[in-house]
Inverse folding.
């Protein structure tokens, strides 16, 4: 049966679901988790794999055809391969995972065997000392081994780098070269002022226009890759030598109008925007034994009333500073990107 077309108030369908499987992370990236202390979800509150699988079935019934597992760092969730096995046979166009690659050397192959189709790997720098400064960890060589393991197992891998002025904005070209060397596509992400980015400042953002200008100076003409049907966050471009890369301009030129994404946190909160203040708690519905139809109805009602344009609304703010201050994050940790799933 064709899934019903669920449409929000701006005519946007629900197609893509990001499922966070843990809020824990083994890095402390400057742009995501710069604080010393965090409040973690308790283990009893995490959705069990069977609950996630059930939810994914319900979302598929509502039109979702792409699922991405994320976190925190998803590879920290124990027995993740089992969850992938549960999801692998569902009628999805894409089943992907976003990871920082620290544990990927061990898990690239088992996850592939379990049915994972694609990886997005975060790689902000090729310079080990910078990695230490950016993440407060020393595992750059481990990350690089993880990426090599992934390159042997997967096609269509994307490498994601958050570009920050004065930190890694001189690495556009080396990152493009590295991505090409392992057959991956590079994507440059503008530094976003999402919840958790408590050190954000507009001066640290390198706008897409500036990234493209720098690459144009270096390589000559850059052609936009036309993809009229795409709802992917990245706009894609081609260098004169044919290499294609993406830029995610969520800070200076956001794509809210095309956004078909929703998120479920590791403890079952459903969010319709990365910037949304409120979510819908699905765990109580699952655990009190609601039928699939009743849970679908609750999700449907949320999506049908969705009017979020979080990133676009941020662009309209004149004196743009940190979006959610630390005190508000402490009061409601679900506002953190690492809870919500990037
Ligand atoms: N731990 C996994 C990883 O590192 O890919 C998955 C979770 S992480 C929150 C998902 C993505 O969000 C990463 O690519 C990360 O770079 C991105 N991210 C986090 N904070 C960001 C920010 N302030 N601006 C832009 N991207 C951000």
């Amino acid at each position: 049966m064709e899934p019903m077309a669920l449409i929000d108030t701006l005519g946007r369908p629900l197609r893509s679901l990001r499922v966070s499987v843990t809020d824990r992370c083994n890095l402390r990236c400057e742009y995501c988790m710069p604080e010393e202390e965090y409040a973690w979800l308790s283990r009893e509150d995490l959705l069990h794999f069977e609950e996630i699988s059930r939810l994914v079935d319900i979302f598929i019934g509502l039109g979702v055809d792409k699922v991405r597992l994320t976190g925190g760092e998803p590879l920290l969730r124990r027995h993740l391969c089992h969850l992938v096995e549960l999801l692998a046979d569902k009628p999805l166009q894409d089943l992907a995972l976003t990871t920082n690659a620290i544990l990927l050397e061990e898990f690239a192959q088992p996850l592939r065997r379990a049915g994972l189709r694609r990886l997005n790997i975060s790689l902000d720098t090729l310079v080990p000392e910078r990695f230490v400064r950016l993440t407060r960890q020393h595992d750059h060589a481990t990350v690089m081994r993880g990426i090599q393991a992934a390159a042997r197992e997967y096609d269509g891998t994307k490498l994601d780098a958050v570009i920050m002025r004065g930190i890694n904005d001189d690495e556009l070209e080396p990152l493009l070269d590295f991505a090409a060397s392992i057959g991956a596509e590079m994507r440059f992400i503008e530094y976003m002022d999402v919840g958790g980015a408590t050190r954000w400042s507009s001066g640290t953002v390198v706008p897409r226009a500036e990234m493209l200008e720098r690459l144009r100076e270096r390589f000559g003409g850059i052609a936009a890759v036309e993809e009229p049907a795409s709802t992917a966050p990245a706009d894609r471009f081609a260098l004169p030598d044919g290499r294609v890369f993406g830029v995610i301009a969520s800070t200076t030129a956001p794509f809210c109008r095309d956004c078909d994404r929703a998120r479920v946190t590791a403890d079952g909160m459903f969010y319709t925007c990365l910037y949304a203040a409120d979510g819908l708690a699905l765990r109580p519905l699952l655990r009190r034994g609601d039928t699939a139809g009743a849970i679908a109805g609750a999700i449907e009602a949320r999506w049908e009333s969705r009017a979020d344009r979080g990133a676009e609304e941020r662009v309209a703010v004149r004196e743009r500073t940190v979006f959610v201050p630390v005190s508000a994050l402490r009061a409601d940790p679900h506002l953190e990107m690492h809870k919500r799933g990037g």
